[in-house]
Specification:
Helices cover about 75% and strands about 0% of the residues. It has twelve helices and no strands. Helix 2 packs across helix 9 (about 210-235) and helix 3 (about 75-100) packs antiparallel against helix 7.
Amino acid sequence: MSMAEPAGPADSPLAGIAIVQGAIMLFVLMDVAIKTVAPEVPLVMLQAVRYASHTLTAMGLRALLGHAPFAWPRKPGIQAARSLLLLAGSFAFALALRDAPLADVTAVNFLGPLLLMSLAARILGEKVGWHRWAAVGLGFVGTMIIVRPGLGVTSPSALFALVTACTFAVYQVLTRRLVGHDDALTTILHTGIAAFLVASLLAPFFWVRLPLSAHAGMAGIGAMSAISHYIFVVGYNRAPASLLAPFTYTQLLWAALFGVLFFGDLPDFYAVLGAAIIGAAGLGVIFIERRMRAEIAKRADRP
């Protein structure tokens, strides 16, 4: 089986969980790079270069794996909507950070998995058991313990953070809708195209002269974006969106680890407690899913 043609939903859910974890780790590494580059780069310029590099990297991945660099999608409307949702979420997240601490914005942003769970049940028709709802709820509790938010729900920053959560939840659902229509390489190519086209129209009004190192950093962010989103799409081809939702909370664990490695930010007691709750929620889903599959297999073997 080639990477360009990942298995469908019938493949191992545990493989999907592991693959999505790899993508989430790269997402956090990309955030580290953005935090390093962003202070000297206008936001619109950063997004334009990022999505240009994303698109070129996706074309390179296609060529490397034996495909034509460009391909028309079977679902162009969904592909364009995903790309624009991702761009909107990027802008909204940055706007939320202008007037609120990162921890508070992150707390609101982690409403996304709860929204994803509801959307997966209503739009995708996935069966969502009590254990998955419980895992998402525990993950959210762990998140609140870690970030200890104080953001007012009526403030502009809270609204921008909520927009980020909503856009990414719908982005994930649309990613799942593409299974069986466009392969992962086509999807990841078109993840960047519409975003680049819109950002490039705005970029000339915000363009500034920067050193070569800044341009290299922005291009690197785009390349990481393409690779991490490709891995993310492959993961969603392997497991239901509602099963993967609780595991998106591990982004906080990766952020804590990389915070120590890159910025010397040591987690406090509440961060450790919250991380333990998040980990327990994820492991609980794995354990219950395995028990349920074992019971189904036993019933199928009975005469």
